[in-house]
């Protein structure tokens, strides 16, 4: 039996070796691109917690996205869904954003004792 010609084996593997070289070069390029990417994002980070106000009592809460998966969110003590996202204005007032007006009018109207419907400002004198 004759031993296979070494030149033929290498010639047959030439294409195979070339593919691995291309794959290795692409992997190294990808790794270099990953390592050279900036660590910080040009976009502001998303906060871990958001401000919510109880439309019944005016109490403020800071809730995570998981704690407030549905809006209105559940009040931690009463377990009733009376919490709605709010913003703190520069003048110190607390207000409901316009996008939540419909939720306030439809779902929370029977609980609302502190939000002025015209301005969506939370009353502070309670």
Provide a descriptive summary of the structure in words:
Strands 1, 2, 3, 4 and 5 form a five-stranded antiparallel sheet that branches. 12% of the residues are buried. The chain folds into two domains: 1-37; 49-106, no CATH class. The protein is α+β, with helices and mostly antiparallel strands. Strand 3 (73-74) and strand 4 form a beta hairpin. It contains two helices and five strands. It starts with 5 loop residues before the first helix and ends in a 20-residue tail after the last helix. The longest helix has 31 residues, at 6-36.
The overall average pLDDT, rounded, is 82
**How much helix, percentage-wise, in residues?**
25-40%
Principal-axes geometry comes out as elongated
Strand content: 15-25%
Individual helix count = 2
Helix/strand-derived category reads alpha+beta
**Which regions are unreliable across 5 or more consecutive residues at pLDDT < 50?**
none
Care to count the β-strands? 5
> Largest sheet at a glance?
5 strands, antiparallel
Order of helices and strands: HEEEEEH
Radius of gyration from the alpha-carbon trace, in angstroms? 31 Å
Termini separation (Å)? 102 Å
């Amino acid at each position: 039996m004759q031993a296979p010609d070494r030149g033929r084996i290498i010639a047959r593997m030439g294409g195979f070796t070339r593919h691995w070289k291309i794959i290795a070069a692409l992997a190294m390029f990808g790794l270099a691109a990953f390592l050279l990417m900036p660590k910080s994002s040009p976009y502001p980070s998303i906060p871990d917690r958001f401000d919510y106000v109880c439309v019944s009592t005016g109490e403020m809460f800071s809730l995570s996205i998981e704690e407030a998966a549905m809006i209105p969110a559940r009040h931690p003590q009463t377990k009733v869904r009376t919490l709605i996202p709010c913003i703190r204005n520069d003048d110190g007032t607390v207000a409901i954003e316009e996008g939540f007006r419909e939720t306030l009018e439809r779902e929370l109207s029977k609980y609302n004792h502190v939000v002025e419907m015209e301005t969506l400002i939370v009353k502070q004198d309670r």
